[in-house]
Amino acid sequence: MAKLKKTANKKSPAADASSKAQAERLGKSITESAQQIWLAGMGAFNRAQAEGGKLFESLVRDGLSLEQTARKFTGARADFVRDAVEGKVGQARERATDTWDKLEKVFEERVQRALVKLGVPGRDDLNALTARVERLTEELRKANGSAAPAPPRRRRARPLPPRHRRNRPASAPRRPPSRFSPKSRQSAASLAPLPLRIRTGGRFAWQWPRSPCA
C-alpha cells in the first residue's frame, strides 16, 4: 500500500494535463450531441406539424378501410352463423317429423293388430270389400242396361156399380100458406089495431078493439 501511494504521488504533471484535455473533449462532445438531439427534435416537431393534416387524412382513410374490412368480415361470419343455425334447425325439424311419422305408423299398426284380434275388419279388408261392392254394382248396371225393360202392364178400369136412386114422387101441388104460418102471423100482427085507453067510472083502462078478421 505504501508503495502504491508513493507511485501515485510520483505522477508527472504531463499525465494530469492529458487527463484534463480528455475530460474537456468528452464534455464538448456530449454538449454537441445534446444540441444535435435537440435540433433533431425541433425539426421532427416542425415536420410533424406541417404534415399533420396529411397524416390525419391518411389515418382516417386507414380507419375507413379497416372498418369496411371489419364489416365485411362480420357480415360474412353472420351469414355463416345464420346458415349454420338454419341448417341445424332444418335438420332438427326433419328428424322430429321422421320420428313423429314413425310413431304414428307404430301406433296405427298396434291399433290394427288389436282390432284384428277383436274381430273388427281392418283397413285392407274394408278397401277390398269396397272394391268388391263397386265391381258388383258395375256388373249389375251393365246387366240392366243390356236387358230391354218390359213395358208396364195397363190395368183395365172396372165399371162402377150403378147407384141406387130413390124413387121420388111426382111434383105434388103446392099447399096454400097457412094462416098460422110465420109470414101470416107477421102480416096479421102488422094489421092488428092498437089498444084504446077508455075512461070508465073515473078510471082509465085499456081495451083492445075487435079485429075485422076475427
From TrEMBL:
Q: Give the region (Disordered) as residue ranges.
A: 1-27, 140-195
Q: Where is the composition biased (Low complexity)?
A: 10-21, 169-187
Cited InterPro entries? PhaF_PhaI
Compositional bias segments (type: Basic residues) = 152-168
Kindly provide the name given to this protein in its UniProt entry. Answer: Poly(Hydroxyalcanoate) granule associated protein
Which Pfam families did the record assign?
Phasin
